[in-house]
Amino acid sequence: VQLVESGGGLVQAGGSLRLSCATRGRTSSRYAVGWFRQAPGKEREFVAGISRSGEMTSYTDSVKGRFTISTDTAKNTVYLQMNSLKSEDTAVYYCAAARYGVAPITGGAYDYWGQGTQVTVSS
Length: 123
Hints:
Layout: E1 2-6, E2 9-12, E3 17-24, E4 32-38, E5 45-50, E6 57-59, E7 67-72, E8 77-82, E9 91-98, E10 112-113, E11 117-122
Parallel strand pairs: 2-11
Antiparallel strand pairs: 1-3, 3-8, 4-5, 4-9, 5-6, 7-8, 9-10, 9-11
């Protein structure tokens, strides 16, 4: 399984971006998908997750109400819509897939990772 992220870039504070995570390979097997981020000098942190069924979502507190995770099963793609961006959202964002029904919040539980996409929010 290969995960390919896209959609990162430079945006002003208060702006929006939509990240995409396209799943390629054994897409007949469904996975829970999580988005993580890592800022310079900081540990990787869980941002949002969506269950294998697409019915359950979870978010870290700092992004609740601003970020929305969703899935398009026909396109085998998971999205992360990010609104009201803040400078502290600046990081490399990674999507990951796990053989679980719900998306774990720990990175070690994931089986596949994308290459990451840079999000920079200018203040």
